[in-house]
Design goal:
Elements (H helix, E strand, L loop, with lengths): L14 H33 L3 H42 L6 E3 L7 E8 L4 E8 L2
Antiparallel strand pairs: 1-2, 2-3
């Protein structure tokens, strides 16, 4: 006897982790654009001979580089957190039955393995029928 039941996939959809994952990846991709802009500003800084432009390009580079690093780390953190939340929700709020048992034979004495998904336990049960 198997206590596993089928559930439609739509009933298990969680929108928050999905939204967090997409926004985290979006922030990470946006950080590449900022990093490219910072690199362009640094290249201009190296090519410039005027002191006023050197200060401007160096300041632009530092600001864009810092923003790029912050944006990338924030995006990856949000995406990682969304994965952890998704895994946690699947592990604790399982829609399947809590125990799985394999079909038993008609023997009067036997061993049957059982798996408890909530407690994360596997056990072997000795049974004797009268």
């Amino acid at each position: 006897m198997c206590l596993l039941s089928e559930q439609p996939a739509q009933s298990r959809v969680n929108k928050l982790p999905t939204l967090m994952f997409v926004s985290g990846i979006g922030l990470s991709v946006g950080s590449f654009y900022l990093n490219k802009s910072a690199q362009d500003s640094y290249d201009n800084y190296l090519r410039t001979a005027l002191q006023s432009e050197i200060k401007k390009y160096r300041q632009d580079y530092r600001q864009l580089q810092t923003a790029s690093v912050v944006m990338a780390r924030t995006g990856l953190s949000i995406a990682g957190l969304s994965l952890i939340i998704s895994i946690w929700k699947q592990a604790t709020g399982s829609v399947v039955a809590h125990q799985l048992t394999l079909p038993q034979t008609n023997a009067s004495i036997g061993l049957s393995p059982q798996v408890d998904l909530v407690k994360r336990e596997a056990k072997v049960v000795w049974s004797r029928r009268f």
